[in-house]
Design brief:
The complex is a heterodimer. By secondary structure, chain A is mostly helical. Helices cover 93% and strands 0% of the residues of chain A. Classes of the chains: A mainly alpha, B alpha+beta.
Chain lengths: 132, 488
Amino acid sequence: MEDALWRLTQQSRTLQDFRKDISGVWSDTVARELNSRYLNPHEEDDQEIIKAFREQNEALEQAKEKLRIASEQAKEAAELSAKVVESLEFTQQELNSAYKSYDLYIQYHAEARSHLPLVQQFINKANDACPK
Amino acid sequence: MTVYDPRILSQALEDLQEELTRWSTIASDTLSIAQDTQRHAQEAVDQTAHRAAIVMDQAERDQQDVNAAADAVAKMLDKAREAKLVSHKTLGEANTALQKANSTLHLWEVELEKALAWLKRAEARLAKAEIEYDRAERARDAARQELNAAERSYRNCQNDKERSDCSSESRRVQRAQGELRDAEHRLHLAYVELMAAREEVRQAKARVACCQLAVSNSQQAFVHAQAAVQNANEAVNAAERSLEFVQAAERAIRLAQQHATTEKEVADQMNIAVQAATELTKDAFHHFQLAERTETSAQRQSTDVRYELTYRVDQLRNLNRVVSLDSSVSSNRQSNYSPMGVSAVSSSIGSGAALSTSQPTGSTWVDSGTNYVPIAELPDPQDINGENDFKKVPMTEMKAGLEKLQEMLPIVERGEGTSKDYWASFDTQKGLDYEHGYQRIYEAFYGDDAIRLNHNGNQYDIVNGRHRIWLAKRMGITNLPARVIEKK
């Protein structure tokens, strides 16, 4: 778009230069009338068009920069998401190991607890077997 | 009145036309490129906004996943810590039980040893008692045989007539009797000892048996206590391993939380960037719309001025021919005009006749301002046949504009709506934007783009506004405001 805008600006300049040149050979009332009715408004419009296109272009360039930043942020977010997934996987692995060990704990602990009353029972039986 | 060289001026005006044509082409191309650029930018913004929504959704889902995992880790952490405490407590109980079982076993092993020693002693006593008893029994039997022999000897003596004195046999009998009583007494004592020894052996054996049972039970208690300690140790190890794993999980989930938080922040920043890009693209679109509107106006001016220039160039060419012809016919007339010149009389402001050649009649064009011209008196533009010929402004849009104009005319005629500011304020009150408002219509009919007519005698020539006139005729509109240049 910048190239097109440059061409338009150049052509506008050429046109205005040409008008200046032509004013040297034609500057009567009719020329002034044509200028005031058509060419001057055309020049004003032309400048306004260039200004508007330039502002459009600047806004779009700024938007493009914002989109570039957004794109980088999307990439950064994707990388962070991958790290989150990786950390979650590691967390899950460790949790699974923790669950397994905990299950073993439950098993061994229950086994240990089951022996304790038998110990007392047999001690009582031993002590009851004959007088001391 | 000024005089120019018509050939030079003609060439200059043609060059100006060319430059304007080139400008029109470039402006049109630029508009097209700007439109494409705007569209591409909008597409890029839409795509990035869609992507931002996906990123935000992912970030939120990651946060949810992380929170769910963090909850699971926290619960497991509590359980693992509790397991460690409980397992250590159980290990303590098991060790206490093992000590108790061990001391009980030791106690009964000592008791068993004592019982076995007692049994050994009792058995030795019994063996001795049995020997003593056998000996006493044999001594009694010997005493009994001696008594029998003594009694037989005494009876033989008594039966022997030859013997009168059997006192020695009698003493032997008495002695034998006494020895027998002693032997029987000793046998009795041996028997009592034997019975006592046997009872002691029985009691010792009973003690040994019960001690053996106690030891056996103690051993069972010891085995169970050992098993309890072993299992409690395993439980402690398992609980500690579980705690270590869950602590590692906790570190990992903290890292995941940090990443997820940063990810959400980045997603928020991305949304802000996309919103900024959206706003900037909207701004750009407004600039584009302004450029487009202005470009339309400028193109119209460019077309009109080229049309005017064509008209002027034709006039200059004709004049040049006339001047050349005249110069060849009459040198006297040539003296009234420059040899290649044209006389410009610029008393009018009407564009259609802005430049008039100096003609024999000496007539001039005078701007009579805005008039309400009867449509019926205007020529029907021949080059317009229908909707397809409406290029700059679509026919439906122009029709709507003419309808609005009919609403506006009474207000303008009353002298109220005679400025564009009035209609700008009117649009604001009605909540209309420029594109759909009345200000635009006012500018179109009373501003630079007004219908312009050249009026020469009874004939009108349309300089500008042919489409509006063509459409007004078909809508049955009777009068339109137009800038009229009168030929005087």
